[in-house]
């Protein structure tokens, strides 16, 4: 009689935090879809506009940092928003290498049409639970960004 090897308990997909966040992001996208379709924008376009409400007239680089997007990903989004009439792109007169993004009146008007719509109720969490979860996820994200940055610096 042979001795059987011990069974290794590998984690299941549902055990991965990264999958929980990824799939939650997909669910958020589906839940937001009717709101965003009514506004005529995609989710990524929407968060760019929200970031510009907070700080208008900023560079593509600055906006990209806030949104965790590289300029080669962000630029087509901004071009589309410009075509839709929600923002303007222009060279910074102080530094021609920089592109400044600013909202148009139509971009600012989207705030009135959609900013007050949230998915707090749809989440099934009360306001305090929702805020606590959002803070925890933000802390997780910041820790992971810091970790990835430190790993990249240590590998040089």
UniProtKB/TrEMBL annotation:
SMART domains: HTH_MARR. Gene3D superfamilies: Winged helix-like DNA-binding domain superfamily/Winged helix DNA-binding domain. Keywords: Cytoplasm, DNA-binding, Transcription, Transcription regulation. InterPro entries: HTH_MarR-typ, MarR/SlyA-like, Transc_reg_Sar_Rot_HTH, WH-like_DNA-bd_sf, WH_DNA-bd_sf. The keyword Cytoplasm applies. It is found in: Cytoplasm. Its main location: cytoplasm. The keyword Transcription regulation applies. PROSITE patterns: HTH_MARR_2. Residues 14-142 form the HTH marR-type domain. Pfam families: Staph_reg_Sar_Rot (PF22381). This is MarR family transcriptional regulator. It comes from Acetobacter sacchari.
